[in-house]
# Entry
Amino acid sequence: MPGRKFNNDSYRYGFNGKENDKDVSEGVQDYGMRIYDARIAKFLSEDPLTKKYPWYTPYQFAGNRPINSIDIDGLEDHNVVTNEVEKTLTFHGADHKSENDPITSGDNINPWKDLLNFKAPKNVWEKTKERIGGNTILTFTPNAIQTIDYGNSTGTNFDYYSVLITKLPEGIKNGEELFDHLRLGLGSLMDYKTTFAAYNSKESEIWNSKNPLGSVMSFDAYFTSLHLNWDDASVMTSSFYKGNGGGYWTFTTLMTRGDGEHPIAGTRQFGLTDNKNGTYTFYTRGVDRGYGLALIAGEETIFKSAEETWSTVMNKAFVKINSEKGSALIPSTPISKRVNWWEKVKPQFIK
# Structure
C-alpha cells in the first residue's frame, strides 16, 4: 500500500510458526524432524514416522488436513479445532510404541505441549470463583488456580492411558452419546482409594448439564500406603468440547477454601476420539508436578498413586463397556514418565 513500509529482516519465523533457517536458504524452516521449503511448499525429507503410518505419503504435512491442523515438529499433526494431537497418542494408544521410543520413555514431550501451555480462560475462572467464594472451611486458604509452574517437584509427570472401544454399548447410538455416558459415569470408574464428586450441589448441577464448563469437581484420594488424606483435591472444568463423534474436557487443578491445596499442579484432559473406522478411543492424558505439603510423602509417591488411579479408570471402563453388551479391548500399555522441569521442560515449552 502506498506510504506503508515494512522490514521483515528482523522477523525470525515463517510458515506454521517455525523459525527460519537462513543458514540453509531463504524460505526454509527447520521443524526438528524435517526441513520445510516454503518456496515450493514441500518437505525436503521423508517423515521419520513413515513406516508407522503407511496410509500417508512420506512427504505429507499435518496428516493431509491443512485446513484444521498444523504440524508440530515434522512428525504428527495437531488438530487446532479439537486441540488434539492426532495419531500420536489418542488413536491407538501407546501399544505401537517400543520401550525405547522417545515418546514412551524419553524426553520427547511434544504430544503434551498443548497441555503444558494451556491456561484456563479468565472469564470462566472469574465466574467459577464468584460461585464458590463463600464455600469456606479453611478460611485462610484462597480460591486460586494451581498452574504447573507453581509446582514444587523437580520431576514433571507426563502420562497417557487409554482403552479401545470396538462396539458401542447397548442403547448408545453414537460417539457423542458414548462420550456423555463415560463423562457422567466417571465417578464409578475410580479405584478403591479415590472418589470423584462435585464440590457442592451447584457445581453438581453444572457438571451434569449439557455444558459443564467451569464446574468444580473434587477427587478425594489417599496418596500414601498409610492412607493419609489431607484434603479433597479440587479441579475446574476449564475447557469442554463435544461433537464429531466424541469430545473432550480439561481439568485445571485448584486450591479452594473447601478442599485446601491440590497435591499436584497441572492440567489433565479426558476425551473420546472417533477413529473413523467404527472404533473409539477413551483416554486421559496429563502433565503435572507435585505441589505443597503433599510433597512430604515424596513426589514419586504422588505420581505412582496417580498411576494406579488412571490405570484403574481404563480397566473399569473396559469392564463397563463389555458388561453393557458393547466391546472393548484390554487397555493399552500406558505412558507414565518423568522429565526434569528445570532442565528439559521449562526452558523449551513454557511460554
